[in-house]
Write a structure and sequence with these properties.
By secondary structure, the protein is α/β, with parallel strands linked by helices. It has 8 helices and 7 strands, in the order ββααβαβαβααααββ. It has one domain: Carbonic anhydrase (Beta-carbonic Anhydrase, Chain A), CATH 3.40.1050.10.
């Protein structure tokens, strides 16, 4: 079987079973790199790596990001900044509420099947407006209702919570998306089953800037 992806004017072919290029950074090392970058960001000692003209020229020939980040589109949570990474380091997929409709999943599938990242991070954040809207309920204009429907299971689970139902819903939404991606076949679930790709749920704190694992 041959799978063809067309992106950014370039064509990538995947033959037989989905087989991403070998990457030198495993899932645990990739997560460690992200946490170390977040620590630099917190302390104000960011390196702002891989942003030189030379790196830009090198990356024009191809990309091999070491992690995929599915994050909220919130302007306060840019993954390359909060993880202190640069050009070519992260394959970022961003949408309000860090949900995973088909087109977002397809983007992640393209990355893991063709570019070699061994880590997928589902990144929620404190006081997420999309999750808050789903929690409050009520009519939503335009296409917003379609997005909020995806967050509704987490919002429903948070109802009746005495201690910060919004944060409970934010964490529940992250966990729901992690489970969704882990079971999405054949590409993502196949890599996860083989242990070559790991999916981590995380939460970004707007006040402190710290990223933590969502258990």
């Amino acid at each position: 079987m041959r799978i063809l992806f067309l992106i950014g004017g370039s064509v990538a072919l995947v033959w037989g079973q989905y087989a991403a290029p070998a990457a030198s950074v495993g899932p645990d090392e990739a997560w460690r790199n992200l946490l170390e970058g977040n620590s630099r960001y917190l302390s104000g000692t960011g390196r702002h790596p891989n942003q030189s003209p030379a790196k830009r020229t090198e990356l024009a020939k191809g990309q091999h990001p070491f992690a995929v980040i599915l994050s909220c589109a919130d302007s306060r949570v840019p993954p390359e900044v909060i993880f202190d990474q640069g050009l070519g380091d992260l394959f970022t997929v961003r949408v309000a509420g860090n949900v995973a409709p088909d087109d977002m999943v397809g983007s992640i599938e393209f990355a893991v099947a063709n570019l070699g990242p061994k880590l997928i991070v589902v990144l929620g954040h404190e006081r997420c407006g999309a999750v808050d809207a789903a929690l409050k309920g009520g009519p939503a204009e335009g296409h917003l209702g379609v997005l909020l429907d995806r967050i509704k299971p987490a919002a429903d689970a948070a109802k009746g919570q005495k201690d910060d139902p919004l944060d409970f819903a934010i964490r529940a939404n992250v966990k729901n998306v992690v489970k969704q991606l882990e079971s999405t076949g054949p590409i993502i679930s196949g890599f996860v089953a083989k242990g070559t790709v790991k999916i981590v749920g995380a939460r970004y704190d707007l006040d402190t800037g710290k990223v933590e694992v969502v258990q």
